[in-house]
């Protein structure tokens, strides 16, 4: 492949060496935009990045574009798709659909509450472990262990913990005279119960991200804050936590991806596309619309709106990374 690129470059440029002899015996290299592009690392490395780029573009971004096209049709069932009449009827239907409004509200509540609580708990755990407490390696493993579990295991584990009759959660609350509560069956409690289970599983990830950044901060920053008379709380609030901004942004994006995967958790929790009442989110509504009611155009419109919701969070992060030269 490298030889083919070299031959193509010679054909396009015309000769191997564009250097001219100067009057003093030196040489002057002619500037050529085409030659500069051919000599660039981008072209030289194309055999390595171009094939996977094309495959990903076709199977990922091509699929997204096809899904967007289907959302503009009225397709339902398993017959051929009619592309002759394209409009935004499915999007208009979504914004007038009470089920979509409720699912969108639950999705935003789940994402925001899950991310905020995970960031706070992860930060507190990271600061405690960074204070050189005893058995910190053991605590770090214990906090990170739930992340290694699949959504199926986590859902069944918390289904048992939330059991109304003999669940541990109601057992503990019963000691102080509270409950029992139907955590999964009560529409007012089920979304909070799902968020709590997801926080239990993924707060360890946030702790690791924060802890890695805390341990990279030079000791001089801590010593300078102490010399200035700052208390421990002021030292972390004004000196240390501002340096965790990049870690917080990265963790937020990853947590959002985890939150959008709550479909797996809800599916394993009830064993079907219909989540408990009060816990319907956009991914469950999208799958139920497409594969239970066979309304593929409406399901595609919900998928595109969910994609735009995710993009509204990921795009500022990508712009931030590009602006600072990390992309």
Write up what this structure looks like.
With 327 residues, the protein is mainly alpha-helical. Helix content is 69%, strand content 2%. It is built from 16 helices and two strands. A hairpin with a 5-residue loop joins strand 1 and strand 2 (27-29). Helix 6 packs parallel to helix 10 (190-216), helix 10 runs antiparallel to helix 13 and helix 11 packs across helix 12 (232-240). The protein is flat and about 75 Å long. Mean pLDDT is 82; it is low at 11-19.
Keywords:
mainly alpha, flat, 327 residues
Give the strand content.
under 5%
| Count of helical stretches | 16
Regarding quaternary structure, how should these chains be classified?
single chain
Largest sheet features: 2 strands, antiparallel
Percent helix, as a range, is 55-70%
Write the layout of secondary structure elements.
Layout (H helix, E strand, L loop, with lengths): L1 H12 L5 E3 L5 E3 L3 H7 L1 H4 L1 H26 L17 H7 L2 H33 L5 H9 L6 H11 L6 H8 L14 H27 L2 H9 L4 H9 L4 H16 L1 H9 L11 H10 L4 H28 L4
Antiparallel strand pairs: 1-2
Helix pairs in contact: 4-16, 5-16, 6-10, 6-13, 8-14, 10-13, 11-12, 13-16, 15-16
Short structural summary:
It is built from 16 helices and two strands. The chain has helices spanning about 1-15, 35-40, 40-45, 45-70, 90-95, 100-130, 135-145, 150-160, 170-175, 190-215, 220-225, 230-240, 245-260, 260-270, 280-290, 295-325; strands at about 20, 25-30.
